[in-house]
Amino acid sequence: MSIPVDHEAVIVGSGFSGIAMAIALKAAGRDDFTILEKADEIGGTWRENRYPGCECDVPAHLYSYSFELNPYWSQTYAPADEIQDYLLYCVEKYDIRRHVEFDATVQDAAYDEETATWTVTVASSWGTLRTIRTRTLILGVGALHEPHIPEIPGLETFAGELMHTATWDPGTTVQRKHVGVIGTGSSGVQIVPPLAEDAAHLTVFQRTPAWVMPRHNKPYADRVVDTFEARPAALAAHRARLKATSDLRERGLTSAPRVLKAASRLATDNLRSAVKDPELRSALTPDYPMGCKRVLLSSDYYPALARPDVTLETDPIDHVERDAVVTASGVRHPVTVLVLATGFDPVGSYRYLGIKGADGHLLSDDWDQGATTYLGVTAPHFPNLFMLLGPNTLLGHTSDLQMIEAQVGLVMKLLAERDRRQARAVAVRPQVVPGFLAEIDRRTAKSVWQSGCAGWYLDRSGRNRTLWPGSVSEYERRTTRPEMVDYEFG
């Protein structure tokens, strides 16, 4: 007997993952779906991250859908507002907006084994609650979405302007202010140069120096844009070259770290040419192999730190006071604006949703000892639940959008097979997952990520539950031709 549902599918999140999934469902004639978006606009990461200097560190022609190439990117690496505009264009072109419910925050979701459906509890900003019943639940909540707030004593007592880069208020000005930035990862390296230009003084609190490569960000000449517009085949060929060359970097991270030695020399030369002060240069020189943490791209970060009105502080932070950051040696750094460039919790978005699967399994409990999924898309004991950019599917060497498209393709194949078998549910077999995770551990052990540095790639136990330890092409092969024996249908 058919069980009535409000929608055949519910997608949570309207960033690149959610929109790609929606486009695929529509293309397959599965038009009965809704997208739950907690904010008031499309966009996810690129809607929320609007801090000064925010850009993508993947070439724009690769950081876009393969089925919707954009000849109009203005430069090699697109700024945040251009990426957001691109996504909004895709939403309008594929008629997705009518499927989106804004101001809809998922509180929890529970699977009913008897009916093989999910009941999703949704809250509005007004405090109202409602439920939606669906056959298929797809989480496109983003891996780099839940801001990581460091546990610094006294942070809550700071009386000035305090913000994470992901919550930057576009109306914020730092003109003639004393500014502190905590963190020197991707967002820190991007925000420091523009803040240094405007602040009366900028103090950058560095825990670990990063490997920083020069960023060759050039504007596209009009003739190039015109060629890409007039000749889609030329644009497709350009993207294919970017995809192939970017994927080659994977070997340097996973199986042949010696490949990164040449890049290390280039990064060292970049530092030496930009920073003449030997003491500052020493403080900015990493003591771990390149690739152990994310390799950053910037041509203005080092020059910004070399300015006389910028201080690099490497002494650990002891605590924060109402108007200052105090380091372990007792030095007070007066600040009126404090910026947390401290990144994100890669599995936080999933952990906090309150997902209850079959046999009483809670996703948060199951993941307490480390995220357990198969190919980052399905989890044991959670039928008809699919994740996009789930654990072990982020990349350290190229565009994550390629992984999103591969995962969307896998979801569509599993839904089609579920229908073909006239089954009500599909889930990964629990017996399959331990072997897959053992493979991830085995391959990670050979990688540069296990060379001794501490970072967000590894979980609290030191296991990699964030990155895919292989090439994009390998992941695409495994998701394009999935082993249906790995799944159970019922």
Structure description:
It comes from Luteipulveratus halotolerans. It holds the Pfam family Pyr_redox_3. 30% of the residues lie in helices and 19% in strands. It has 490 residues and is α/β, with parallel strands linked by helices. It has two domains: 7-146 and 345-489, FAD/NAD(P)-binding domain; 149-210 and 255-342, FAD/NAD(P)-binding domain (3-Layer(bba) Sandwich). Strands 1, 2, 3, 4, 5, 6, 19 and 20 form an eight-stranded mixed β-sheet that branches. Strand 15 (324-327) and strand 16 form a beta hairpin. The radius of gyration is 23 Å and the shape is globular.
CATH class of the largest domain: Alpha Beta
Structural class: alpha/beta
CATH fold topology of the largest domain: FAD/NAD(P)-binding domain
Span between termini: 14 Å
Our estimate of the beta-strand percent is: 15-25%
InterPro entries: FAD-bind_Monooxygenase_sf (IPR051209), FAD/NAD-bd_sf (IPR036188)
Protein name: FAD-dependent oxidoreductase
Organism: Luteipulveratus halotolerans
Supply the key terms.
five-stranded parallel beta sheet; FAD/NAD-bd_sf; FAD-bind_Monooxygenase_sf; FAD/NAD(P)-binding domain; FAD-dependent oxidoreductase; 490 residues; alpha/beta
Break the fold down into its secondary structure elements and pairings.
Layout: E1 7-12, H1 16-27, E2 33-36, H2 45-48, H3 80-93, E3 100-101, E4 105-112, E5 117-123, E6 129-139, E7 146-147, E8 161-164, E9 178-182, H4 186-198, E10 201-205, E11 212-213, H5 222-230, H6 232-247, H7 250-254, H8 261-274, H9 278-283, E12 296-297, H10 301-305, E13 310-313, E14 317-321, E15 324-327, E16 332-334, E17 337-340, E18 344-345, H11 348-351, E19 355-356, H12 363-366, E20 385-387, H13 401-420, E21 426-428, H14 432-445, H15 472-480, E22 487-489
Parallel strand pairs: 1-2, 1-6, 2-3, 4-19, 6-20, 8-17, 9-10, 9-17, 10-13, 11-12
Antiparallel strand pairs: 4-5, 5-6, 7-18, 14-15, 15-16, 21-22
